[in-house]
Amino acid sequence: MKKVCLVMTMLCALLLACKPEVEKPTVVTKSVGEVTETSAKVVGQVAADGGAEVTERGACWSSDGTPTILDYRVKDVEGGLGSYDVIITDLVPNTQYYVRAYATNKAGTSYGDEKTITTLEDTPEEPGDEPEEPGDEPEEPETPMHNGHEYVDLGLPSGKKWATCNVGASSPEGYGNYYAWGETSPKAEYTLENYQHWVDADGDGDWDYGESTINSDISGSVQYDAATANWGGGWRMPTIDEMRELENNCEWEWTQINGVNGARVVGPNGHCIFLPSAGYRNWSSLSNEGNFGYYWSSTPDGYYDGDAYGLGFYDGSEFVGWGNGRYYGLTVRPITE
Predict the structure, then answer these.
(1) Which of 177, 185, 236, 325 is the most exposed place for a label (fewest CB within 10 A)?
(2) What predicted TM-score, i.e. pTM, was given to this entire model?
């Protein structure tokens, strides 16, 4: 009997050793054509799946060369093997772009050969149109801005636009300022005792239910909303439902920008924002920076008066709707209509 068990064990080990290792899929950029001023058609082909299901395929592009899915991309509605075509849009007229097909399975993402295209120039005016006055040359397209701050349209169902930077930051990877919930200025220490909106009604030094001066959503309040107070009208903190929209309708990728860890959030239209993992402040300490991101919503916790809802994420996971103590210092990413 022992010999039989030994033989079976050896056979199982042999079968496991012979199990083929999953590889990245093989994808080909077959052609890029039908180029217009702002779009082009990309034909790709997934020639081999690498031993695992191809979960995503499409095309990516950039104006700098060697595009990846961390640049602009558009997904095919179907996965799997075979040929497919997608349309890349929102290109700038008379501009050179580098384009590649891509395919992804559980082993990773692979790319086809790089193709180069140049979009067409703007269509000239038809005869009979009014001539331009001397000196009225068309201006270069600018990044969308409101009140001096840039935003990105991610193609969300609500149409809300998300800012490219945190409040207090000058770049997408900058942490920016930290705010206690309902306060509009950063401070040196974040404690329960110096939180502006706590009322210790019974004098026991602990936060009890009903001891806050704020009991409703603060989005758009110049008195309580750090985005509105610092960036002006039209900017506000997102509600918890608007954070859930971002979570449920976008793809989240843990990545780095200029050495800063964070989440690249890609919207349904392929446009994206970067949320740095800025951690949080308690007392005078900064904790979990580079490992976790914590962002306030404008919505108070519906169960515990001492908390407010927010967005959190780390490598491989994001979660919306958790409550955190209002006196902690968290970052704020504004939205606009």
Answers:
(1) 185
(2) 0.59
